[in-house]
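User: Quick sanity check before I run a bigger batch. Here is a single chain. Can you write out its predicted 3D structure?
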Amino acid sequence: MLALGLLISALADPPAEVPARMRLKDGTVYRLKEPPSLKEGRFIFTTTDGKLYSIGEKEVDEIRLLGPTPKPRPSPNSQDSRELGAIARDQRHKAGKRAPVAPAPTPHPKPDGAEP
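Assistant: Done. Predicted structure follows.
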């Protein structure tokens, strides 16, 4: 109940056009265009389909603000030979193996009589 009180105080001045979701104690879920406003013990809100509602504060179980949907990270193209290094690196990371980006160069002995 304390968390709901903190959320209510945070919603006193809601930002515009931030989608939200409201769940009632009876299990009903509403998807909202923006966070509801609290006036005289009642939440006033508009659903995503444009309907206006007013519900008593005691009937609300939870209100969640929904952030933007994350953009999916593009996966490497297994048919592109330039991306094979990225594919191999991802497979190593999934297996828990780590490899240096570039190994240290190994000194090669010069043949006798070679000029510098």
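Helices lie at 2-10, 84-94.

User: Great, the batch can go ahead then.
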